[in-house]
Amino acid sequence: MNPYLVGAFVPLLLSLILCNTKSRKKRGVPVDVGGEPGYAIRNHRFPSAVESFWEGVATIAELFEQSCKRFSNKPLFGTRKLISRETEKSRDGRSFEKLHLGNYEWLSYGEAFHTVCNFACGLVQFGHNKGERLAIFADTRAEWQIALQACFRRNITVVTIYASLGEEALCHSLNETEVTTVICGHKELKKLIDISAQLDTVKRIICLNEEGIINDYSLAKKATSWAVASFSEVQKLGQENPVEADMPLSADIAVIMYTSGSTGLPKGVMMTHGNVLATVSAVMTIVPALGSKDIYLAYLPLAHILELAAESVMIAAGSSIGYGSPLTLTDTANKIKVGTKGDASALGPTLMTAVPAILDRVRDGVRKNVNAKGGLAKRIFDIGYGRRLAAINGSWFGAWGIEKVLWDFLIFGKVRAVLGGHIRFLLSGGAPLSGDTQRFINICLGAPIGQGYGLTETCAGGAFSEYDDTSVGRVGAPLPCSFVKLIDWPEGGYLTTDSPMPRGEIVIGGPNVTPGYFKNEEKTKEVYKVDERGMRWFYTGDIGRFHLDGCLEIIDRKKDIVKLQHGEYVSLGKVEAALIVSPYVDNIMLHADPFHNYTVAIVTPSQQTLQAWAEKEGITVGDFSDLCRKEETVKEVHSSLIKAAKEARIEKFEIPSKIILLPEPWTPESGLVTAALKLKREVIRKKYAEELSKLYE
User: Fold this and answer.
1) In the predicted model, is pLDDT for residue 652 greater than 70?
2) Percent helix / strand / coil, the chain, rounded to 5
3) Transmembrane region positions (predicted)?
4) Rounded distance between C-alpha atoms, residue 387 and residue 389, angstroms
5) Rounded Cα–Cα distance for residues 312 and 424 (Å)
6) Alpha carbon distance 208, 119 (integer Å)
């Protein structure tokens, strides 16, 4: 054979072998479990559920102390220095606050442990008694984590509350758990003062050290009977009056986490130290080479289990945590002053977590910039993207070696610079991530995206994509702390005997499954079951299917399925995930009524994209609200939705027949989406009931 042909053939053969090997690799294997009959899978490397990764460590408090002693001189908590706050006005006269932020200033593991111990002692001196519960009601920051760890050293159960929670839900959470002490920030203190007459058990307020807090601090003392102190005052109290730690046991309740809830009042999920530790231990076995060289950018709500678990993993690994916020994340973020670095640029993180809604926006932002440049720049991007995609898919003709370096230099390096340029692994959780977005971000960042699946009720533990799994649209094999089982749901047509893959409701069992809901025995009995072998299971309400390699894919949700007038089933979440890829869509809620044979949709459009379209078409309008009401605008957006639906092979009856455009974005502050940016369907439906009824006329 011609040696040149051999030389060309060998790389192709190796590529095919490698691709075939990856597709055959077993990541999850069947396991015999108790309880309701179904099809169960465990992690391929662990025959039994992992409870603790460290000998002698049974609680999060012990884990924190171990890490602080082991990595004493390493940086742990980083906070940016606030140089100034400035107010800028837009062309339409609206005022916006802009922040000038400096570099990160660090607290080492040793210093953090000293601060935690002092604050723990200070809580005792401030009057917080054994057995009482404490709430943390603040945005994510270093003091939030310090306060949490301090409470754990006193075996205090912490109630976590989203900073964006409305008054009714806030009162419900604090009163139901009979909280006596609240740790809060500047804007949260104002909320507490406004509802002080409705709070039955609150006695003490600890204010985080923030600019402007002193005025509200004084107001709280005058307007209420609460004892009020600053974070630093409590810390000093403890430093001057040390007491012995009161460490918890594994079965003690560490956190009562109030979900922001997509329906009704929030439920408080009780988590033991053992529950959280199981998830942390499992993730430690999945992400490769976690260690003290890693830097993690923290900006998601710590009141969400995804962020709480992620930061716990970072602490366990000896990594550094730099704190930021969604509004200061990048150089072009809403609150960043022009010329000031965003959090990612200033920190240069190697690890991040994100919810799908944020990644969708990153994808849309990159695509909009590329399309706006057009011409040669767009063509080069498309070619580079295609070459990298071919390489990931195992093609010999993809961008390998030197060519990969070239494309990184020409195109993708600029995209990576948006998040600091050093990301090596990114975790997506909180909701299903579309395969399109996952692959796009994966190529542009040049780093794997581990898609995880879990719930507050399972301490974020469930399934997790392994580092070398290049597939998209799946959430991986069960974490080592979990068994994942599918059970039949005949009403929805999902059975474990389905071919080619078993399908059904997802049920999760293992040491990460929580005890239940606080003071809600009825709901706990409904979705939690203990089998004859003592394994605790949580019935998620999500619908999944297992691939041949043991990886899980989320395909539906029981609550999101509506039967139309002629008997067709519509999966609202599935259709929304397909339609949101339209460049005109910022957010969308599909609505299906059993008394009609078609669906409708409420859309919050992308202002930048829609205005660019209007300008191109020569459409002049007074403001964005006027543009959203125009018939030609609605027609253009609707056409893009139909195109996206057809590309995703959505059934005709699932595609919205009519839509309405709303100019105002949906944010957690508006109460229309959760902190993880999931739709609050019932809230949105009630708020826009009149608009929806017109769509059915």
Assistant:
1) yes
2) 40, 25, 35
3) none
4) 5
5) 19
6) 12
Question: Which residues touch 568 (CB under 8 Å, ≥6 apart)?
Answer: 597, 651, 653, 654
At 263, is the pLDDT very low, low, confident or very high (cuts 50, 70, 90)?
A: low
- Give the DSSP per-residue string, 34-65: -SS--EEEEETT-SS----SSTT--SHHHHHH
- What are the b/e assignments for 585-604, b being 16+ CB within 10 Å? bbbbbbbbbeeeebbbbbbb
Distance between CA atoms of residues 175 and 685, nearest Å:
28
Q: What pTM, to 2 d.p., does this model score?
A: 0.83
**DSSP class of residue 489?**
B
Q: How confident is the model at residue 436 (pLDDT cuts 50, 70, 90)?
A: confident
- β-strand pairing of 477-478 with 463-464: antiparallel
The answer to whether 186 touches 213, Cβ cutoff 8 Å, is: yes
Strand partners, 600: 591, 658
Nearest one of 526, 484, 496 to 33, comparing CA atoms: 484
| Single-letter amino acid, residue 398 | G
Half-sphere exposure of 671 (CA within 13 A, CB side): 16
For residue 682, give both structure tokens: 């019932």
The tens digit of pLDDT for each residue in 547-592 reads 999 999 998 888 887 878 777 778 888 899 889 889 899 899 999 8
- Tokens representing 582 are 């339209």
Find where tokens 């094999």 sit.
477
Structural domains of the chain in order of their starting residue, each with its CATH number: 24-49+354-418+423-557 (2.30.38.10), 60-341 (3.40.50.12780), 564-695 (3.30.300.30)
CA R_g for the chain = 26
Residue-level pLDDT at 90: 64
Full DSSP string of 280-345: HHHHHTTSTT-STT-EEEE-S-TTSHHHHHHHHHHHHHT-EEEE--TTSSSTT-TTBPTTSPPHHH
Residue 137 and residue 166: Cα distance in Å, rounded?
12
**Residue 89 reports pLDDT greater than 80:** no
Q: What is the largest CA-CA distance in the chain?
A: 93
Handedness of CA 151, 156, 160, 166 (dihedral sign): negative
Long-range contacts of 394-399 (CB under 8 A, 24+ apart): 394/15, 394/16, 394/18, 394/19, 394/22, 395/15, 396/11, 396/12, 396/15
Q: Quote the CA–CA distance of 124 and 642 in Å, as a whole number.
A: 61
Angle at 47 between CA 42 and CA 51, to 5 degrees: 90
Residue 176: both structure tokens together: 């139901």
* Average pLDDT over every residue of 294-298: 97
